[in-house]
Design goal:
By secondary structure, this protein is an alpha+beta fold. The chain has 5 domains: 32-199, Immunoglobulin-like, CATH 2.60.40.2380; 207-422; 504-657, Histidine kinase-like ATPase, C-terminal domain (Heat Shock Protein 90), CATH 3.30.565.10; 684-837, 3-Layer(aba) Sandwich (Rossmann fold), CATH 3.40.50.2300; 849-930, Winged helix-like DNA-binding domain superfamily/Winged helix DNA-binding domain (Arc Repressor Mutant, subunit A, Orthogonal Bundle), CATH 1.10.10. Helix 17 crosses helix 19 (618-632) and helix 27 packs across helix 29. The longest helix has 68 residues, at 395-462. The chain is elongated and about 140 Å long. The two termini are 33 Å apart. Mean pLDDT is 72; it is low at 28-49, 252-256, 465-469, 671-690 and 821-851.
Length: 931
């Protein structure tokens, strides 16, 4: 709300300023433009438009400035033209103007116009009764009270009736031009002159209004955006507009009378018109370009500021206007050329959003070089080509001003639009994240409530009389407990994966057999409703995929169970499972009762996901879990209702093993039926019944865990089938391994985060020790460190278990190690590692963030949550991640190239992609964002 009011206030301010300028323009014209119709008589109306009275001009330079008009003889004057450049002269310049009498044909009211260039003062004399008399005055360096007609135009009105009655008339003009301005003399009928003056005044005041408005907009935007760069450029452009007004003559008449009468006012005004702008331009460019090698530009900056200072000093100390004007023009040329050098040196480093400014400013400053070069050359070479800017009515100034201000304004508006879009996108992202968090909160609350229900089911089953009496029906109670515990484990496993946003712990699964085992879980429900399953599939018998057991069972079982619950009795459940385009597609169809159509519509309404689930909506909980679990494997869910039936389409893209090798360890069943098979080998012993091979040897196990409860539980599970030894710290475990009196363990189970000596250090010591390097090590990893698994296996660990783990998972790991020979075991580990790494990702698809980044200087470096989020959002490749982390450590491009073994040019190319993906403009911004 506060931001909206601020914007409205700025808009109102700009509108008020523009209105005042417009009113000032109208009132100025009304005050200072005479209405020709009031003074016109009938005979005056015959004056044709666009007609100038033919005149003859001659000139004389009185370098002493001591002669009076009556003392000048006609022989003193030299023939001239109506447009000529007298150059710099001492004293005063006299003009003698002869023109024929035209009162009888063209009227008697004229205006003597002296051009638009700067003239300090011009006095007009007429001859009457043989004597010369003062008639009028105009000028740029005098007060308006001293002018015959207060106007920014240099003109004096002439009434031919006040001249002598002759066939021709003579007028003399005495003028002083401090900076040697060119002269443009014409005698124009007043009606035509007033028309010209009206058009010129309107154009000038409009341009002035537009220029000042642009400057004020730049200042307002700079203040509003809190960006001092735009405040500086806005101030520079404002100063340029005001000094141009002063130089054009509007200043002495309406604004700066006190400045106009100062001795050095023309020098000072003309000087600051350009150099002040260039001064601010250098500051602007030096910051906008953000040159990391700015020291290379220091000589250019030194030249610019030296030229600026020296020309200012000389303009105030040297008396000769010619020398001052020459110094000023040379200074402007030097400053402008250095700006172009600065632009060329930093062109490749300029941000793309500044290309608009560069594209317009280069021609603007190039025009300024030519403009001032011609002004120097015209003094020494009176060639026509060097005088093309003499009578341009300040079009060049206005053009340069627009070329400088409009691109900056456009860039600010463009940047603000991007900021607005970014704010809108961020707001939409926040809304989506809020909705997702609300959905997760409601989902977690429903799962927690369901877990409490399962816990009560387990407790009630334990308290059944059968359990206490040992009746044969105790198996029913055991089945209740096992199902409840299994379902609770599934929920906890799913919540762990969803909450930590980590990839699940995958296993190799024989898809078709596993799917059939999941169907058997539905048997009790389907039997009660007399629903028959009709299964069709196009799955190869040996297709092995990599997926999490619990998640995959949840997706298969819950999707089919949801259909079964909303269907009627005595119907068929049509199930089709196929594998195509590297995707698993499960299509299931069933007839639903009319009473359940409304329930199905509510389940499919995603807008309800932000509302909490009620206790009686257990069916919908499983459905929501399925939809969330599918996303883990980049899958999609689609539901269709056709007539009296409903069809679910489930698509997933897990990793798969195209041609599984012999001895590949795979899972074929789930729940209490689950066991692992060696492909094309006789079925081994079920892990839940017998962990170790029946070779008569009792293995030795060393279990290192600081948690006494976990240590005690492991001892309870393993002590009957092994020689079990425990250690509470890493140091204690290492000492056990080094003591020759202790038996050598057949397997070493170690918590990765065990105190005093970390798991990483223990692994290093074991691989370097002759006595311990052959001991298989199983690390226990928390979910937050699941990404370390591949790295640990590469470094020599036998395997890893992700906590919390089940007894079956622990048994499976031990069984694998003890039942397979070392050679087969190494092959299995290699296969699992390769599968976990996944297929090679092409460069254009690189964007999936690992948990760590490999840096040459520090090995594997874990990413923080913030870094993971930033890199995932930006879609950085592994190489770009490495360079981003090295830049955040303060490394230069050369150092990064040496560390990574690539060229500095390649690093520069990666930097450009990094800056664009992370939306930063410098290394400092990248360091602040990544750290």
């Amino acid at each position: 709300m506060r931001s909206t009011n601020k914007k409205k206030s700025i808009f109102s301010l700009l509108l008020t300023i523009f209105t005042l300028i417009s009113v000032n323009t109208i009132s100025a014209q009304a005050r200072y433009i005479q209405n020709p119709m009031k003074e016109m008589k009938v005979e005056d109306l015959r004056v044709p438009e666009h007609k100038e009275i033919p005149i003859t001009v001659s000139y004389y330079n009185d370098d002493t400035a001591a002669l009076q008009c009556s003392q000048l003889s006609r022989s003193y004057f030299h023939p001239g033209s109506t447009k000529f450049n007298p150059g710099f002269y001492k004293g005063v310049l006299w003009l003698e103007i002869d023109f024929p009498d035209t009162q009888s044909t063209d009227g008697k009211y004229y205006n003597l116009y002296l051009g638009s260039e700067h003239i300090d003062v011009a006095d007009v004399f007429i001859q009457k009764d043989g004597q010369w008399h003062f008639y009028g005055r105009a000028g740029r360096s005098i007060k308006k009270e001293q002018m015959t007609t207060p106007s920014w135009e240099l003109h004096v009105p002439i009434d031919e009736s006040e001249l002598e009655k002759k066939e021709s008339h003579t007028i003399r003009v005495r003028m002083m031009a401090y900076i040697g301005a060119p002269v443009r003399v014409s005698l124009i009928p007043r009606r035509y002159f007033d028309q010209q003056h009206t058009r010129q005044s309107t154009a000038n005041f409009s341009i002035i209004g537009i220029n000042i408005t642009l400057c004020l907009i730049l200042l307002a935007l700079g203040i509003f955006l809190h960006d001092y760069i735009y405040i500086l450029i806005g101030a520079a452009c404002t100063f340029l507009a005001l000094t141009s007004i002063q130089l054009n003559g509007v200043g002495p008449v309406y604004l700066w009378n006190q400045i106009a009468i100062l001795p050095h006012a023309p020098r000072f005004t003309y000087f600051l018109t350009h150099t002040s702008l260039l001064f601010f331009t250098m500051i602007f460019l030096s910051v906008v370009l953000q040159n990391p090698a700015q020291k290379k530009s220091y000589p250019i900056f030194a030249t610019i500021f030296t030229s600026f200072g020296m020309s200012l000093i000389f303009s105030m100390t040297i008396q000769s206007p010619k020398v001052v004007f020459l110094i000023f023009n040379v200074s402007v040329i030097i400053i402008t050329i250095n700006y172009l050098f600065l632009w060329a040196a930093n062109f490749r480093l300029a941000h793309e959003e500044h290309s608009l400014i560069i594209n317009f400013w280069v021609p603007a400053f190039s025009t300024m070089i030519v403009f001032h070069l011609f002004k120097i050359l015209r003094v020494y070479f009176p060639s026509t080509i060097f005088q093309i800017f003499d009578y341009d009515d300040y079009i060049v100034y206005n053009l340069i001003f627009l070329l400088i201000t409009v691109p900056v304004l456009c860039m600010i508006i463009r940047r603000q639009r991007r900021r607005t879009r970014k704010m809108k996108n961020d707001l939409d992202t926040v809304k989506k994240e809020k909705t997702a968090l609300t959905e997760e909160k409601n989902l977690f609350a429903a799962v927690t409530r369901q877990l409490l229900g399962l816990s009560n089911t387990v407790l009630n089953a334990i308290r059944l009389p059968q359990m206490q009496s040992g009746d044969s029906s105790v198996k029913n109670a055991q089945g209740i407990i096992e199902r409840a515990a299994g379902q609770a484990t599934d929920y906890l496993n799913a919540l762990t994966i969803f909450a930590n946003n980590r990839p699940p712990h995958d296993s190799s699964i024989l898809l078709l057999d596993f799917f059939k085992s999941c169907l058997r879980i539905l048997t009790p429900l389907l039997s009660r409703k007399n629903i028959k399953i009709e299964l069709s599939h196009t799955i190869p018998d040996n297709l092995v995929i990599r997926a999490n057991l619990s998640l995959l069972e949840m997706i298969f079982s819950n999707s089919l169970m949801t259909l079964a619950r909303i269907s009627g009795n005595d119907t068929n459940l049509l199930v089709n499972l196929k594998f195509e385009d590297e995707s698993i597609i499960l299509k299931s169809h069933i007839k639903i009762s009319p009473d359940n159509k409304e329930q199905l519509a509510l389940m499919l309404d995603e807008s309800r996901y932000s509302s909490p689930l009620s206790p009686d909506e257990t069916n919908e909980l499983g459905f929501r879990l399925v939809k969330k679990a599918i996303k883990v494997y980049n899958g999609t869910f689609k539901a269709e209702t056709t007539g009296d039936g409903c069809t679910f389409h489930v698509t997933m893209k897990p990793d798969y093993i195209d041609n599984p090798e012999k001895n590949t360890l795979v899972v074929t069943r789930f729940k209490n039926e689950m066991h692992q098979d060696i492909n094309d080998s006789p079925p081994p012993y079920a892990p839940t019944k017998q962990i170790f091979p029946m070779n008569g040897k009792i293995p030795t196990i060393l279990f290192a865990e600081s948690n006494t409860t976990a240590q005690r539980l492991a001892a309870e599970i393993l002590k009957d089938q092994s020689h079990f030894f425990a250690a509470s710290t890493g140091t204690e475990a290492w000492n056990f391994l080094q003591d020759p009196k202790n038996p050598k363990p057949d397997v070493f189970i170690c918590n990765y985060n065990i105190p005093f000596l970390s798991g990483r250090e223990i692994l290093r010591k074991c691989t370097e020790s002759e006595t311990a390097k052959d001991i298989p090590i199983i690390f226990l990893l928390p979910t937050s460190d699941a990404g370390r698994r591949n790295d640990l296996i590469r470094r020599g660990a036998a395997d890893c278990l992700i906590k919390p783990y089940t007894t079956e998972e622990l048994f499976n790991k031990l069984y694998t190690i003890f039942s397979i020979s070392r050679k087969i075991h190494n092959a299995v580990v290699s296969q699992i590692t390769q599968t976990l790494r996944g297929p090679e990702i092409p460069p254009e698809q690189e964007g999936i963030m690992p948990a760590q980044v490999q840096l040459p200087s520090a090995g594997s470096v874990a990413l923080t949550t913030k870094q993971t989020s930033i890199f995932n959002t930006a879609g950085l490749s592994s190489r770009e991640q490495q360079i981003a982390m090295l830049i955040s450590q303060g490394k230069s491009d050369k150092e990064i190239a040496e560390l990574l073994g690539i060229s500095a040019g390649t690093v520069t190319t990666h930097n450009k992609k990094l800056f664009k993906k992370l939306n930063v403009h410098s290394r400092v911004e990248l360091m602040n964002k990544v750290r």
